[in-house]
Amino acid sequence: MLAIIYIRTGDASQLYIGSTDRPTPRDNELLVRVKACALNRMDILQRHGRYPLPPGASAILGVEMAGIVEACGASGNGRPGDRVFGLMLGGAYAQYCAIEEAAAIGMPESMSFEEAASLPEVWYTAYQALHFIGGLQAGQDVLIHGGASGVGMAAIQLAKMAQARRIVVTCGSEEKVAFCKSLGATHAVNYKADSFRSKARTHLGVNLIVDMVGANYWTDNIASLSFDGRLVILAFMSGTKVADFDIAPILGKRLRIEGTTLRSRSLAYQCQLRDQFAAQVLPRIRDGTIKHIVDRVFSWRDVADAHRYMESNQSRGKIVLTVD
Ligand SMILES: NC(=O)c1ccc[n+]([C@@H]2O[C@H](COP(=O)([O-])OP(=O)(O)OC[C@H]3O[C@@H](n4cnc5c(N)ncnc54)[C@H](OP(=O)(O)O)[C@@H]3O)[C@@H](O)[C@H]2O)c1
């Protein structure tokens, strides 16, 4: 089969379409003919050789896809011809991939492969951060960094659905400010022009922060949290080292700081997120009360351009590859 591969780690020019072995589905897996897959920031880290792969993960990039079931593993569940999408350990940037049956979701009739392929990673991640880890309650205030990212787009709307009181977000342009507000952010700060700290500290601070920026925001994050506040760390796009930090507020405000990753979680844990997504989010995406934003679709033959587009930080929502 064909897949997007690279010989050397490095910039986007390393990516090309080449031949590799078609995966053989294990007992509880489906073999899927991939029609579309979606980009995630970790794909860029992995391409650079800076993402530690979980055990058993394919070396081929990509953790989410949509396609048509080609064959089933020995357990015989699943039907060839079904349209499915789902989250996987890796291997989505390819003509064929193997996915755990339990992780595959049947595609709604009216949904396109491009939309379905780009759903799981950001919605599961946002749900996990806000609810499983962050324990968001109605009436609480939340601060979401990277508001126009795929994860941010999902988190804003889930926070609104959970009846958060103030949804403060950060993002890097006035266009993104307008985008985040259109999704339900009550306050959006262009961090290139302003500091988020004053907005977040109104009303004694926020109850929950979802952060993927890391070092640059650490001090202001801690200052922005209210008593019993929670900081959920998803990534550290600005770096990991913080100098000269006073830990006293962690005790003084009884803060909880927790990091989490989705890809390293067990299948059972990911299936809990899938169930919440299927019950609470998917029906609202279908009836239009929640918007899933696909910013741009590229042919997989233009994968290097798609990666460069993500790296340029221009995107709002998801970037998708169609696979032929
Ligand atoms: N832990 C997990 O399980 C998990 C799962 C999924 C994603 N993530 C992480 O969550 C983040 C968002 O992922 P995504 O796929 O949704 O990303 P994305 O759509 O590519 O958006 C990322 C956005 O972050 C902003 N950004 C980049 N560098 C920044 C910096 N140094 N300081 C402040 N903002 C910066 C940029 O927007 P602006 O124009 O606003 O700067 C960029 O467009 C990534 O870091 C990803 O690795 C973690």
Automatic annotation (TrEMBL):
SUPFAM superfamilies: GroES-like, NAD(P)-binding Rossmann-fold domains. It holds the Pfam family ADH_zinc_N. The keyword Signal does not apply. Keywords: NADP, Oxidoreductase. GO terms for molecular function: NADPH binding; oxidoreductase activity, acting on NAD(P)H. Residues 10-321 form the Enoyl reductase (ER) domain. The keyword Oxidoreductase applies. This is NAD(P)H quinone oxidoreductase, PIG3 family.
